[in-house]
Amino acid sequence: MIRGGITWIAEESMQQSRFEPMGLGVGTLLNNRYELLRKLGSGGMSVVFEASDKALSNEMVALKVFSPSLLADRALVDRFHNEVIITRKLTHPNIVRTFEFGQMEKGGYFMTMEYVRGVTLDQIIQQNALQERPSFAEVVRILLEICKGMAYAHSLGVVHRDLKPANILLSDTGQVKIADFGLARALLISDKQITQAGECVGTPFYMAPEQIQEQGADHRADIYSIGIIAYEMVTGNPPFQDDSWFQLASKIIR
User: Fold this and answer.
1) Catalytic residue at 53?
2) pLDDT tens-digit profile of 25-59?
3) Is residue 41 classed exposed, middle or buried when 0-12, 13-18 and 19+ CB atoms within 10 A define those classes?
C-alpha cells in the first residue's frame, strides 16, 4: 500500500508515481539564488531539495518544486501565494517556517521553507516496523509537541487539513516540527470541480469522515488526524487500510 501525496483522484491516486522535474538537480542554481545541494524526497506532485540561499549568507532552506500539472491554473497559483502569506505568520517551535512562494526563471513554481535536519515521523514508523516500537513516553512526547503546534495554529484560525506522519519532522535534537501548512487548503476546489474530477484534498488514510464526504473541515479534522497518527505510532499501521479508495472511504465513514 502506497501512502503520501497531497492530492489524489479516486483509486489512481493510491498508486501515484513520483514527480521528477526536468532540468533540475544537485548543483542547479535556481533563479540565480538557490543552489540545490541534495534531494530530500519526492512525491506525485512535488520534489524537495536541500538548498543554499545565496542571498542570505548561504543559509540552508528546504526548497519544494511543484509539478507543472499541479499549478496549471492561475487561480490555484494565486491561492498558493495567499496561503504562503498566511502561513508565514505561523511562528512556533513545533511548526516549520514558510518563507517564499515563487516562479522559476524557466517556468514552474517553488516554495522555500525552514530546513530541518532529521527524519520524518513516517520514516521512524517504517524503520521501526520490524524493530521495537517507540516507548510509550516517546510516543506521548511526540504527540504533545504535535498538539502544541496545532493548538497554536488553530488559535490563529489556521487548519492544516493534511496532517500525516510524512508531514511531521523530528530534528536531530528530537524536536517535533509540523510541515506543509496551507498546502491542502490551497488545493481546495469548487464542489462542481470535485464532482467532475472525483478529487478530494488530503491523504486518505488520515482524513476525517467529513473530509471524505466533502462536507468541509475545521480544526476538528486535524484532531482526528492526530488520533490516527497516534494509533499508527503504537501499532505500525493506520487503523483503516484498503487498496481500494472506495473501500477505504467506506471504512472511515462507518
Assistant:
1) no
2) 888 999 999 999 999 887 767 889 999 999 989 99
3) middle
- Decide if 59 contacts 133 (C-beta within 8 A): no
Instruction: Check residues 182 and 134 and name the one with the higher pLDDT.
Output: 134
3-state helix, strand, coil in the chain (%, to 5): 40, 20, 40
* C-alpha distances out from residue 119 to 34, 90, 165, 167, 192, Å: 22, 22, 10, 10, 39
Strands 98-103 and 109-114: antiparallel
Between the CA of residue 226 and those of 73, 109, 144, 165, 242, what are the distances in Å? 32, 30, 10, 9, 20
* Cell output for 104: 522559476
CB 110 within 8 A of CB 197: no
Which residue, chain included where needed, has cell 494565486? Answer: 78
Distance CA 209, CA 221 (A): 8
Residues contacting 142, CB < 8 A, separation 6+:
121, 134, 168, 170, 176, 233
> Is 191 in a helix, a strand, or coil?
helix
Q: Model's pTM, two decimal places?
A: 0.79
Q: Say how far apart CA 123 and CA 128 lie, in whole Å.
A: 8
**What are the two backbone dihedrals, phi and then psi, of residue 55, each rounded to the nearest 5 degrees?**
-80, -15
Q: Do 115 and 99 form a contact (C-beta atoms < 8 A)? A: no
**2 beta partners:** none
Determine which one of 53, 122, 162, 222 is catalytic.
162
The DSSP code for 6 is S
Beta bridge partners of 235: none
Nearest-angstrom CA–CA distance, 152 and 232: 24
